[in-house]
Amino acid sequence: MIRHLFTLIWNRKKSNFLMITEIFFSFIVLFGVLSLAFFYLDNYRKPLGFEYDRVWVMNMRWNQEKPEEVRNIQYRLKQQLKSNPEVAQVALAASNIPYTMNTSNTGFNYNNRFTMADWFTVDKDFAEVMQVDVAAGRWFTTEDNAAGTKAIIINQALRNEIFPDENPVGKVIREKDNPDRKIVGVVEIFRQKGEYSSDKPGYFEYLNTDYASNGTAGGTLDNLMIRVKPGVTRAFEEKLMKQASQIAQGWTIEIKTMNEMRTSDNKITLIPLVIFSVVCGFLILNVALGLFGVLWYNINRRISEIGLRRAVGAASGQVYRQFIGEVLVLATFGIIIGIIIALQFPLLQVFGVQTGVYVAAILGSVLVIYLLAAGCAAYPSQQAASITPATALHEE
Amino acid sequence: MNNYTLNPLATNNASVDTPPHHQKTVIKLTDIEKVYQTKTIETVALHNINIAIRKGEFVSIMGPSGCGKSTLLNIMGLLDEPSSGTIEIDGASVKSYSDKVLARLRNEKIGFVFQSYHLINDLSVVDNVELPLLYRQLSGSDRRKRALAALEKVGLSARTKHFPNQLSGGQRQRVAIARALAGQPEIILADEPTGNLDSVMGNEIMDILLRLNEEEQTTIVMVTHDELMAKKTERLIRLFDGSQVS
């Protein structure tokens, strides 16, 4: 019977062409949406590499002060904030902290191996504030203040790209026009862009923000990261703001919890998925209505065929299954073309997404299209099955 | 083929019309009534029909348009239910049979030939002939063998890959007969099989039916408007306004 259905649909390919095309496009759009959804889901299940809970971010925008003055104010502010009993630790970090739109990346070269890598400038207290775990080597310490080279800590993704078969700790990266950088440690993962982002190569670069020990050296950083102790409420924000406005007079200070930043950033990340889903939803609705309409039309056009099939021995259940089967076969033609296109993504490693994500998206799309086709076919097929053979044979 | 005579004993009373020279009754209709009812009108299509068709008989049914010939054939073929009365196939009443059992009976015991052929235009000749076999537990190769054998019987072996719209009316009807034969049914019910054909092609089709009846003892019940065709059959049942008149 399956062969018969394939023969029937194949022989009617001209009249079914539009429907097959529509199913194909639905499959491709659905595949795109599901790839994105599974990509996000896959990332969501992976560790972030840091703890955002109970982290508050004080963003600072200063005026015309000289860098040295800014560093002095930031240093004093950090000490002041740290002295609060509600505060567990405070760190200074550059603008590209987690859950911001900011990105800093650069080429990373070693022994003719090259990759692009995100870089995060932080001070020695960052790991404690963000609960970043070091997998190999160590985190930054005061001994890095005196070193002639810049201390950096790479993540595992960067290690995999540049040092696949060797221990990177202790290696010095020498690049023209850049100061030497020495790898002092490796962190497992650090996904600055949050739960839905992939794990990309990156490294932390140490900046000595200890004005007392470093004086005028070093740069300025935009954010004070504050880990508060458990049970601290938003009421504490007022106290922090007061202290900040006293020390950093005239600066624009904004305090947010990282939880708030996370919620806001995740919403922005999910916007494309929501837009694609809506578009896909409309397309699928269109296909559903099309399938329903075509099948309804087909059944009315094929009443005498239904009568014939009943006459030659088809029970009403078989007529029902036949029409459902025809729609599934119709869907199969669209799906086969769709799969051929979709398979190019994992084969050509487009967007660098894991093969498993594409495979899951293909399987999901196949399932959805088949369910859609079967769902749309159910009622018209039931109508076809309920036609009495004598009535059906009377139709020409 | 010239031995067939009209049965002069056909009656319109309640007794069952039985031919003398065949053994087993394959179809028996007793007190069949068929009434089509709408909210406002009640139309009696068949009234007090009592017919027995014996194995190997070739029976024709005649009557003016609208007298209930096709309705009677549909009831015999289990395609339609009577409003009252009993249908027996091989001595068993089909009244309590489910749709599934009725479908199986139609598939195994009855072959249909229609005036307008009822071929599926998107299927090749051989695929059309295979149609009844799709509803049996047969392998693809068995189905194909049987379909080809049936096509050979009607002289269409050379047209197996053609599509219905590439054939003449007579050829289409031969395909329809081959389709009816493919399932090797005991009974063929033919509803005006020559109605759409010219006399030459009509005679060709009639010859095939007569040959099947004679050589393979296939029971045939044929609705026709054509007295000449009806004369070639063993027995004639005449209907008028839904009742048997001879």
TrEMBL record, chain A:
<protein>
    <submittedName>
        <fullName>FtsX-like permease family protein</fullName>
    </submittedName>
</protein>
<keyword id="KW-1133">Transmembrane helix</keyword>
<feature type="transmembrane region" description="Helical">
    <location>
        <begin position="319"/>
        <end position="345"/>
    </location>
</feature>
<comment type="similarity">
    <text>Belongs to the ABC-4 integral membrane protein family.</text>
</comment>
<feature type="transmembrane region" description="Helical">
    <location>
        <begin position="357"/>
        <end position="379"/>
    </location>
</feature>
<keyword id="KW-0812">Transmembrane</keyword>
<feature type="transmembrane region" description="Helical">
    <location>
        <begin position="20"/>
        <end position="41"/>
    </location>
</feature>
<dbReference type="GO" id="GO:0005886">
    <property type="term" value="C:plasma membrane"/>
</dbReference>
<dbReference type="Pfam" id="PF02687">
    <property type="entry name" value="FtsX"/>
</dbReference>
<feature type="transmembrane region" description="Helical">
    <location>
        <begin position="270"/>
        <end position="298"/>
    </location>
</feature>
<dbReference type="Pfam" id="PF12704">
    <property type="entry name" value="MacB_PCD"/>
</dbReference>
<dbReference type="GO" id="GO:0022857">
    <property type="term" value="F:transmembrane transporter activity"/>
</dbReference>
<feature type="domain" description="MacB-like periplasmic core">
    <location>
        <begin position="53"/>
        <end position="235"/>
    </location>
</feature>
<feature type="domain" description="ABC3 transporter permease C-terminal">
    <location>
        <begin position="279"/>
        <end position="389"/>
    </location>
</feature>
<keyword id="KW-1003">Cell membrane</keyword>
<keyword id="KW-0472">Membrane</keyword>
<dbReference type="InterPro" id="IPR050250">
    <property type="entry name" value="Macrolide_Exporter_MacB"/>
</dbReference>
<dbReference type="InterPro" id="IPR025857">
    <property type="entry name" value="MacB_PCD"/>
</dbReference>
<dbReference type="InterPro" id="IPR003838">
    <property type="entry name" value="ABC3_permease_C"/>
</dbReference>
